[in-house]
Design the sequence.
């Protein structure tokens, strides 16, 4: 069974450019989460999808960040325009609905804005 | 609001020493509790989990954690650490009501031979 996959694994872009990160969850997992870790600090929650709906987007930093999950399968996280402080590792995780289930993580996308 | 606190940010031990990492969460409802580990250069992986039942749960590589409901705690323990346990450890509660999974600040463990 394929795990959670994220693309790209690394991205280096200039300030002001646009970047789109992608997450493919485990098939059948309704929950999809995005997190960000900046410079070895805490893993900060960004948002939570249940199927295609945004259940909780309280962690999204500002309106330069847009997440989508059309059709309830893969998700994209777009940063437009990127700023220097957006650099970090973006993690995606997925899990089945309901409690007593665990979340599985992708390897992360390391974003560097220069 | 849901929150989690890890008390130890950086722990340095010698091999064979005992380990206990503190975790307290703040949430009024029912939660599932997890510890995740990230070894150098690898992605996050599950160390152990508590759903219900016996409050003492065992995970991989000899780790265990005890859920104390009255203290809202879920401390991680290992009787004798190894050099290969060098990693970062994250406590993560997940709300029953919302399915939201959040992380503590993490504890960086360094084990010296």
Sequence:
């Amino acid at each position: 069974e394929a795990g959670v996959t994220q693309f790209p694994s690394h991205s280096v872009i200039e300030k002001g450019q646009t970047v789109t990160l992608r997450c493919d969850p485990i098939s059948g997992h309704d929950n999809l989460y995005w997190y960000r870790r900046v410079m070895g600090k805490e893993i900060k929650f960004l948002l939570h999808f249940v199927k295609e709906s945004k259940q909780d987007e309280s962690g999204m930093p500002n309106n330069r960040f847009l997440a989508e999950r059309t059709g309830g399968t893969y998700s994209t996280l777009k940063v437009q325009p990127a700023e220097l402080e957006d650099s970090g590792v973006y993690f995606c995780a997925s899990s089945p609905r309901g409690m007593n289930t665990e979340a599985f993580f992708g390897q992360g996308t390391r974003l560097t804005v220069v | 609001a849901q929150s989690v606190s890890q008390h130890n940010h950086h722990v340095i031990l010698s091999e064979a020493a005992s380990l206990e990492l503190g975790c307290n969460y703040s949430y009024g409802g029912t939660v599932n509790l997890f510890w995740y580990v990230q070894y150098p250069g690898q992605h996050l992986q599950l160390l152990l989990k508590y759903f219900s039942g016996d409050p003492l749960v065992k995970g991989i590589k000899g780790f265990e954690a005890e859920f104390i409901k009255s203290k809202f705690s879920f401390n991680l323990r290992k009787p004798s650490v190894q050099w290969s346990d060098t990693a970062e450890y994250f406590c993560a509660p997940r709300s029953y009501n919302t399915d939201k999974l959040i992380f503590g600040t993490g504890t960086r463990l360094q084990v010296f031979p």
